[in-house]
């Protein structure tokens, strides 16, 4: 696929930023009682509290991101079971009681006592920990730092409900783009009219959880009342300042482009409650509300989830009325921990307002806690956008003598939506840009019609204006969308720095040409009409680069530049720096530019011109003509606004399918306060401390401010009343453009909401998954969700709407259904078309769905209740044949390993084949699979990190089908367009697909390494040290692990421990090449290492280094070492055993005075090896195990003694006898420690109780023989070395453990690997089932002497072809657990008896009980029921009685004695329910069903 096509495809993608986990608010006194509840509200709260109790009854939850961690220090948040204060308050309200301060104190005491008990348990269980935060109000929890491998221990502490990772939080970086939206959005939503009624939010407490606040700002100093800083843990929540950056010795901008100093929280606070000050009209929505700031994000806008939860918790404690959450993460999850905290906050009476996120415009891009059913979720809409045009007069030639450039037809260009005019929206009538005007007062001249559309509109490809990608953060970002980028892309084959060929101008007598040009940008402090009042010389400045201004005088002139290479704002900045008063930019593509920069304090007036007109003016300048320019007839206009901003995240909420966002508000280019950092910079100038920001972060404070006004007017309203009032009284935006998942109920309107006559409450049901089962809960809200209907459904579903009179004034109400999207055959109706309201009226809305509806989509619209001139709207939706859309997954596989961390290598070190699998939720018609370079995310031909592709085609991809691509490591490089092997580095495989629905989807794999190079060890070639051993040998290692570790941490929050990943060792040899000393060392994260060699006798040595990576690639190096002589130096002679070695005698004696000289021995690892030639020419060996090593380990606390003999070539000898002296063998046995002997291809583990089998009067002796033979014998596929244990069978009374290592690449299916035993020549049979099966090795018990090998045992049967359990049956049979009725028949559907199942368990657990014994037991031939099956499994596992919570509908049919076993089996995935959420305890089990369950049991036991 050519790069051009790829570029075009990529340009239509919406690249989403990761948004950040949310927050809460600020401080005051004790929480006060709210009003009593209606019956319906009481029912809702009962359901919420019951849900909490069910959660507590379940097993503790460990977030999947915390599974399988190593020993690295890890921050987590632990939720505990006692009720937080907010829940206790909710229960009190539910019962109709006031929540007094003594009740609050009691609730806090219970929480604190449980937290203290939890911390005490950490200490008792020897769990290394540090307590970071405590929460008592919105959440009962503790943030702690523990070792990653101790997560399982946390779950066993009483009272633990769940454990979540404490994720890092990072704000998305901002770009320089602004748009000319109105300076004050308060009038747009109607706030001034509410102020006129006397409501400005006086005394209402609004908590802002963010980056802090500049409380020195003139607009905010009277609003700020306090707060807390969770970053510095003090009571001063000030923004991170420039002065702090200057002393930090950190870069001003991090790798994501975020500044060290922050401003986000100050901007949000200004929108909510800025007082009137300054010259730019910035006033908050609630200009008399009190702001409490909670700083949870520090330098670079980064923080921790624990800090955000702290903000939420403290805001409840401090009695906030409203909390603003312009934060969230990208998990569309109503059950996420921040959603739990917000739900509890709402229960306590704190109204939570949360941003939906900035990952739109696709469905399901909602974040959390925005997915919370209770919080008020806000999307981002636009306000009015300002448009300015002007007549631009070009005066050509000296003294009025010159020529008029040839007029060009002006192509029509579609206005971009981000400029404030939506497609199909009528723009204000203004003269067309680029049309020459002969009379300045006459703007009616039309350009000739031209059927041309600019390249920006027609093809978002290489020459198009791209939408700037939002920068990704760790797992989380701010809800701020960056504005559309103004970065430009140079068109292909456009020579921009060379003037176009000048055609002979048409000599005219006119001296003036007038063009109607767009003013694309201007300074916020000055109207361009007031600035451009003179006649200015025009000076060409190329592409507007700094070098284009050098050597020229631009002071007081207008710079004339061409579009290309630089962003517009950079061109303007360079012109401003050169002294220009204005800039005219002409296009480098046919037609006008059609883009607006808007206003800010950095701009000077900037106008845009078409390519054709610009080249005409440029020709005059090239011809040496003097060109001057002046401006007149400025026209100011604006678009109406009320469009949805593209990046605003859309619903629905996953699982529940609830309509989200609830409402929308202006959030596009909002002008508000920013810091001038007066706290650290005395005399700071706040005159221009204002700026524009865009995102749902900016929309949310509009709603928070309006809520402050509502609470002032209605202090008795609950948070749920406020939510309904907001949703009932919105302005519904254009439903032809925006559906209910774009805008929710609509855009907020202050005046309509402040004092409504009526509430229209929806008594709805929210659906979600709880403990693995789908459940329904009551939910009072302002929208209707009918749920999902399948084509097989024939249903009628009704919902109740309650209309409540708020002022005691009734009246006639008409009821209508206004569908905006319909489905054939489906009807939505009301049970009444009108009613007279007298206090309260219930209305039923019903959807009727016939069978056979095949539409995939929704029926949606609005239910409208009208009384006189007022209409209350309620959005509704029904889903049909809903399946998830997008890419289900993309993953890599090698053998049975999914997403391997290393790209697999062949034996010769070349790239092997890695399979890429993918599956789609919905049909696709195009897919592009690319390679992303994790070490250079801004590299590649397109500077987006993508270096090339491995697949790209138009192809019909079906939904729910698994597709495989065999990748050989080659890719097509975008730069060279050649196919080449992927080099060593850090990568992901990313897929971009286009669905038949016309939408574009993206997904990627976890990061992986391509690593073909071994570590490079750099040490001195020669070194001279003193004998006393005070010197160290230092060196460095160059390796890919060291390079990628920082990138893995910053890009994926993955900790690669370099020290643990590089196995490093050294060996010291004397001048005769005899091993003197060896040891290991650690490589630091920067690649450095240091070895202390200790005392060595004087002489010459070589020090050999070997460093092995996780793939087995070994790097070596050596140093020639000279040890300077000290008095009486001694270098060991070749015949002298080295320090720490054992004796070389076969009997294990350490005597050095034996009259018979011992054979010459060589120290190899932890043994001293001597050889003896046999009469038949073979060689046998004796390896005397190192007694020094054993004695050292006997002194330690470990439960085993390990000896390394991996350096011995066992295959070389007919037999190797491993020996120990009698004294040391007895000492080892008395210590009760296991002996582990580690060879290159095997490990032997002898328990302390089994040592006696190998000890005689001469000492310990174990004879081994390793056969280098892997041939197939008797159709047995041997994949390991054959290891023989030669021992007297009569004294072999106890089991030992043998681990055999094999090449995982030679095995097709590791699950079918099993140990085989050879008792007589060529007679192979299965040995015991493995104890542990890992990739490349198999551990099993040895019960008798003989030869052992690892075999891949591939068993199948003719009657399971196509059977649903074929895979599991084959594995169980290959492991010799279940056998067929014959060699070709398994009979999968036959039932199984008690005795048969007991025998299968005996084979798994190695009980030694045979079939004959089982067949004679009572009830042996009874058919096995599902209940009895799990009880037998529990008995085999020796489980104690545990939890008995069961959610099956037929749970009452499960006997009491079986409930604990059933709960365990379900929890651990051994068994699952039958259809209809039934367990069917008395049903019998088939051989196939039992095989599947035994397969899961083997997985649970890590035996496969």
Automatic annotation (TrEMBL):
Keywords: Cell wall, Hydrolase, Protease, Secreted, Serine protease, Signal. InterPro entries: PA_dom_sf (IPR046450), PA_domain (IPR003137), Peptidase_S8/S53_dom (IPR000209), Peptidase_S8/S53_dom_sf (IPR036852), Peptidase_S8_Asp-AS (IPR023827), Peptidase_S8_His-AS (IPR022398), Peptidase_S8_Ser-AS (IPR023828), Peptidase_S8_subtilisin-like (IPR050131). One of its GO terms (biological process) is proteolysis. Residues 1-25 form the signal peptide. GO terms for molecular function: serine-type endopeptidase activity. Gene3D superfamilies: 3.50.30.30, Peptidase S8/S53 domain. Residues 1148-1162 have a biased composition (Low complexity). Residues 1352-1415, 1445-1504 form the SLH domain. The keyword RNA-binding does not apply. The active site is at residues 210, 264, 697. Transmembrane segments: none annotated. The keyword Hydrolase applies. SUPFAM superfamilies: PA domain, Subtilisin-like. Residues 426-506, 1118-1163 are annotated as: Disordered. Belongs to the peptidase S8 family. PANTHER family: PEPTIDASE S8 (PTHR43806), SERINE PROTEASE APRX (PTHR43806:SF65). This is S8 family serine peptidase.
């Amino acid at each position: 696929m050519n790069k051009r096509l790829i570029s075009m495809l990529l340009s239509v993608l919406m690249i989403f930023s990761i948004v950040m986990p949310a927050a809460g608010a600020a401080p005051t006194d004790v929480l006060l009682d709210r009003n009593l509840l209606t019956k319906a509200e009481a029912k809702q709260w009962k359901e919420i509290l019951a849900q909490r109790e069910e959660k507590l009854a379940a097993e503790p939850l460990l977030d999947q991101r915390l599974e399988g961690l190593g020993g690295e220090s890890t921050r987590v948040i632990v939720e505990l079971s006692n009720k937080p204060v907010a829940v206790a308050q909710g229960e009190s309200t539910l019962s109709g009681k006031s929540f007094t301060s003594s009740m609050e104190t009691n609730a806090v005491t219970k929480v604190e006592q449980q937290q203290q008990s939890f911390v005490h348990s950490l200490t008792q269980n020897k769990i290394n920990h540090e307590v970071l935060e405590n929460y008592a109000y919105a959440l009962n929890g503790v943030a702690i730092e523990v070792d990653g491998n101790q997560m399982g221990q946390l779950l066993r502490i009483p009272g633990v409900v769940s454990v979540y990772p404490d994720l890092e939080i990072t704000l998305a970086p901002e770009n320089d783009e602004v748009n000319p939206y109105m300076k004050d959005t308060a009038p747009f939503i109607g706030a001034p009219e509410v102020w006129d009624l006397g409501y400005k939010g006086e005394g209402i407490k609004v908590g802002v959880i963010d980056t802090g606040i500049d409380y020195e700002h003139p607009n905010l100093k009277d609003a700020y009342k306090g707060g807390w800083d969770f970053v510095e843990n003090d009571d001063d929540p000030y923004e991170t300042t420039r002065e702090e950056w200057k002393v930090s010795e950190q870069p001003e901008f991090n790798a994501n482009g975020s500044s060290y100093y922050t401003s986000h929280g100050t901007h949000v606070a200004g929108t909510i409650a800025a007082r009137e000050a300054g010259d730019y009209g910035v006033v908050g929505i609630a200009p008399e509300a009190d702001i409490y700031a909670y700083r949870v994000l520090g330098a670079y806008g980064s923080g921790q989830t624990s800090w955000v939860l702290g903000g939420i918790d403290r805001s409840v404690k401090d009695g906030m009325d409203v909390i603003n959450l312009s934060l969230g993460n990208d998990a569309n999850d109503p059950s996420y921990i921040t959603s739990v905290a917000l739900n509890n906050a709402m229960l306590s009476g704190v109204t939570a307002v949360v941003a939906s996120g900035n990952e739109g415009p696709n469905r399901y891009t909602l974040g959390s806690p925005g997915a919370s059913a209770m919080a008020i979720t806000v999307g981002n809409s636009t306000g009015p956008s300002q448009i300015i045009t002007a007549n631009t007069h070009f005066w050509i030639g000296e003294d009025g003598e010159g020529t008029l450039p040839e007029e060009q037809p002006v192509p029509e260009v579609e206005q971009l939506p981000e400029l404030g005019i939506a497609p199909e929206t009528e723009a204000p009538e203004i003269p067309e840009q680029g049309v020459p005007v002969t009379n300045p007062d006459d703007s009616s001249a039309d350009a000739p019609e031209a059927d041309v559309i600019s390249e920006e509109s027609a093809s978002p490809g290489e020459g198009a204006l791209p939408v700037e990608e939002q920068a990704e953060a760790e797992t989380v970002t701010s809800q701020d969308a960056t504005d559309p980028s103004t970065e430009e892309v140079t068109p292909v084959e456009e020579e921009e720095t060379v003037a176009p060929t000048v055609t002979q101008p048409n000599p005219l007598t006119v001296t003036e040409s007038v063009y109607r040009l767009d003013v694309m940008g201007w300074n916020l402090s000055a109207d361009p009409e007031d600035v451009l009042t003179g006649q200015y010389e025009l000076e060409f400045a190329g592409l507007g680069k700094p070098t284009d201004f050098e050597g020229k005088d631009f002071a007081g002139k207008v710079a004339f530049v061409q579009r290309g290479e630089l962003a517009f704002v950079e061109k303007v900045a360079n012109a401003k720096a050169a002294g220009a008063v204005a800039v005219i930019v002409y296009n480098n593509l046919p037609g006008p530019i059609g883009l607006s920069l808007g206003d800010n304090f950095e701009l000077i007036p900037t106008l845009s011109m078409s390519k054709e007109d610009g080249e005409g003016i440029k020709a005059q300048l090239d011809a040496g003509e003097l060109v001057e320019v002046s401006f007149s007839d400025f026209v100011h206009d604006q678009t109406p606004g009320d469009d949805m901003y593209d990046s605003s995240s859309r619903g629905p909420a996953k699982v529940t399918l609830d309509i989200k966002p609830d409402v929308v508000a202006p959030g596009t280019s909002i002008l508000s306060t920013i810091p001038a950092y007066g706290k650290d910079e005395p005399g700071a100038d706040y005159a221009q401390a204002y700026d524009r920001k865009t995102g749902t972060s900016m929309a949310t404070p509009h709603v928070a401010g309006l809520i402050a006004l509502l609470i002032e007017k209605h202090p008795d309203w609950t948070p749920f009343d406020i939510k309904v009032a907001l949703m009932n009284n919105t302005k519904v935006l254009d439903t032809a453009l925006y559906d209910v998942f774009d805008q929710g109920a609509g855009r907020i309107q202050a005046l309509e909401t402040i004092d409504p006559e009526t509430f229209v409450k929806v008594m709805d049901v929210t659906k979600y998954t709880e403990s693995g089962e789908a459940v329904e809960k009551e939910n009072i809200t302002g929208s209707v969700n009918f749920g999902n209907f399948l084509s097989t459904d024939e249903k009628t579903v009704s919902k109740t709407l309650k209309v409540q009179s708020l002022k005691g004034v009734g009246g006639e109400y008409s009821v209508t259904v206004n569908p905006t999207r319909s489905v054939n055959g489906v009807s939505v109706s009301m049970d009444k078309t009108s009613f007279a309201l007298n206090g309260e009226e219930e209305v039923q809305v019903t959807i009727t769905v016939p069978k056979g509806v095949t539409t995939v989509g929704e029926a949606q619209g609005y239910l409208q209740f009208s009384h006189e001139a007022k209409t209350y709207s309620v959005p509704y939706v029904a889903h049909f044949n809903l399946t998830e859309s997008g890419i289900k997954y993309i993953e890599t596989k090698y053998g049975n390993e999914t997403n391997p961390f290393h790209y697999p290598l062949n034996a010769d070190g070349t790239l092997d084949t890695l399979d890429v699998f993918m599956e789609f939720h919905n049909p696709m018609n195009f897919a592009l699979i690319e390679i992303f370079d994790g070490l250079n995310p801004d590299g590649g031909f397109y500077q987006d990190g993508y270096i090339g592709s491995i697949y790209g085609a138009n192809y019909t991809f079906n939904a729910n089908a698994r597709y495989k691509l065999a990748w050989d490591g080659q890719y097509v490089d975008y730069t060279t367009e050649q196919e080449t092997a992927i080099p060593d580095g850090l990568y992901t495989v990313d897929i971009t697909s286009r669905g038949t629905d016309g939408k574009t989807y993206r997904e990627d794999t976890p990061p992986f390494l391509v690593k073909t190079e071994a570590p490079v060890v750099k040490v001195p070639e020669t070194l001279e040290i003193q004998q006393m051993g005070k010197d160290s040998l230092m060196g460095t290692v160059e390796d890919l692990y060291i390079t990628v570790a920082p990138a893995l941490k910053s890009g994926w929050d993955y900790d690669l421990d370099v020290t643990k990943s590089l196995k490093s060792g050294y060996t010291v040899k004397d001048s005769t090449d005899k091993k003197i000393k060896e040891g290991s060392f650690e490589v630091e994260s920067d690649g450095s290492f240091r070895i202390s060699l200790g005392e060595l006798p004087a002489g010459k040595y070589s020090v050999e280094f070997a460093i092995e990576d996780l793939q087995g690639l070994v790097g070596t190096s050596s140093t020639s070492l000279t040890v300077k002589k000290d008095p009486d130096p001694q270098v060991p002679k070749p015949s002298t055993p080295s320090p720490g070695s054992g004796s070389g005698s076969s009997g294990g004696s350490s005597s050095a005075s034996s009259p018979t000289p011992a054979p010459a021995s060589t120290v190899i690892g932890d043994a001293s090896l001597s050889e003896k030639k046999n009469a038949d020419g073979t060689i046998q060996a004796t390896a005397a195990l190192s007694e020094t090593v054993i004695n050292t380990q006997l002194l330690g606390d470990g439960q085993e003694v390990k000896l390394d003999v991996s350096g011995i070539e066992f295959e070389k000898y007919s037999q190797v006898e491993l020996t120990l002296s009698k004294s040391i063998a007895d000492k080892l046995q008395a210590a009760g420690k296991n002996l582990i002997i580690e060879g290159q291809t095997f490990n032997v583990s002898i328990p302390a109780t089994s040592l006696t089998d190998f000890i005689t009067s001469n000492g310990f002796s174990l004879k081994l023989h390793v056969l280098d033979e892997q041939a197939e014998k008797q159709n047995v596929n041997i994949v390991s070395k054959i290891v023989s244990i030669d021992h007297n069978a009569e004294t072999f009374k106890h089991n030992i453990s043998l681990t055999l290592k094999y090449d995982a690449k030679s095995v097709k299916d590791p699950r079918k690997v099993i140990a085989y035993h050879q008792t007589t020549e060529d007679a192979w049979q299965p040995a015991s089932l493995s104890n542990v099966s890992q990739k490349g090795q198999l551990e099993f018990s040895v019960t008798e002497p003989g030869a052992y090998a690892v075999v891949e045992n591939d068993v199948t049967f003719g009657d399971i072809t196509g059977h649903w359990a074929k895979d599991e049956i084959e594995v169980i049979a290959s492991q010799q657990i279940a056998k067929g009725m014959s060699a070709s028949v398994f009979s999968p559907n036959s039932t199984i008896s008690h005795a048969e199942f007991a025998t299968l368990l005996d084979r798994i657990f190695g009980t030694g009980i045979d079939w004959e014994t089982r067949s004679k037991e009572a009830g042996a031939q009874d058919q096995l029921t599902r209940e009895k099956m799990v009880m037998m499994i529990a008995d085999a596992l020796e489980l104690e009685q545990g939890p008995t919570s069961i959610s099956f509908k037929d749970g009452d049919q499960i006997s009491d004695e079986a409930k604990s076993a059933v709960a365990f089996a379900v929890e651990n995935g051994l068994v699952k329910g039958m259809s209809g959420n039934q367990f069917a305890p008395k049903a019998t089990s088939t051989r196939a069903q039992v095989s599947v369950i035994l397969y899961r049991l083997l997985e649970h036991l890590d035996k496969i």
